[in-house]
Amino acid sequence: MTTDTQPHPYAALGPDCVLDALDSVGLRGDGRLLALNSYENRVYQVGMEEGQPLVAKFYRPGRWSDAAILEEHAFVAELAELEIPVVAPLALDGRTLHTYQDFRFAVFPRKGGRAPELDDPKVLEWTGRFIGRIHAAGRVKPFMERPALNIDTFGRESRDYLLANGFIPPDIQAAWTTTVDCALDGVARCYERAGDVALLRLHGDCHGGNVLWTDAGPHFVDFDDSRMGPAVQDLWMMLSGERGDMVRQMADILAGYEDFCEFDSREMHVVEALRTLRLLHYSAWLARRWNDPAFPVAFPWFNTQRYWQDRILELREQIALMDESPLPI
Questions:
Q1: Mind listing the pLDDT tens digit for each residue in 110-152?
Q2: Which residue, 139, 138, 125, 89, is CA-closest to 218?
Q3: Which of 1, 312, 305 is CA-nearest to residue 164?
Q4: Which of the following is catalytic: 23, 181, 196, 222?
Q5: What is the radius of gyration, based on Cα positions, of the chain?
Q6: Active-site residue, 102 included
Q7: Cα distances (angstroms) measured from residue 94 to each of 25, 98, 242, 259
Q8: CA–CA separation, 320 and 158 (whole Å)
Q9: Is-catalytic flag, 205?
Q10: Single pTM value for the model
Q11: Any alpha helices (H) in the chain, and if so which ranges?
Q12: Of 205, 224, 234, 252, which residue is the catalytic one?
């Protein structure tokens, strides 16, 4: 397994650095910092000397180009202008992306909320309406700087990274590789059955943790994984439970979604394919971040023999699911 003995860049991001970064754009913190739940980036709620607390997001060095980050910011700004409930970065001196020392950061208003009750049909329909509005805007033009979600970016690249960097234990490497290759063949078959699926600008990671609920309804946060992909990518992660449960949940979501955006039912063929790609991508994401000291602490079960054995079993289940008929809608 590849290791890196150099200090991680985030080691330099202490409280003084966070406050000094905000001060560099004219925002005076009062010293109160609360680290929020984020591993990909570092995100802090910061108390201000004047006004409400703000949220400062320090982007992981080397992940996105400036152009890709700004493209995300522009997309979220488009949605906000359409009065879609998203949390857009603040424009300070006409800019949303700022630099302090070696860090790039953005500042957001703090928006509270609770987890949505995704077993409530009305909540699902309400959420579906806003996802439909996001997608209607997302279809207007493509991303030019951000990648697409597909079998290469989430599947083959993940497999190749894990193998090239020695994460798979030697005694199960053959079984893991064979299983992954069979799973990717299944993904390819799902896409063939779906046909020519349109791609659009997505939230990209639209699960319950990125939807905050208030009495006024949902608002959507963290577009960091926004990319081009099929519309159903922003829908399937709202589903849970047995097959019958997911059928009902999807019907509730689409009841709201299709008020604003037409849904191509052929995309249901790729739901399990997208789930399979997400599983592979997640393992590679953990591996790529393993030199970040926060990751071994937060994910101690990763990269153990048991972990990789469980992934083989999980992928075998997905291979079977991808050959089943899709959820009816």
A1: 998 999 999 999 999 999 999 999 999 999 999 999 999 999 9
A2: 125
A3: 1
A4: 222
A5: 21
A6: no
A7: 11, 11, 49, 35
A8: 21
A9: yes
A10: 0.94
A11: 15-23, 66-81, 121-138, 157-164, 173-194, 233-236, 243-257, 271-288, 294-298, 305-322
A12: 205
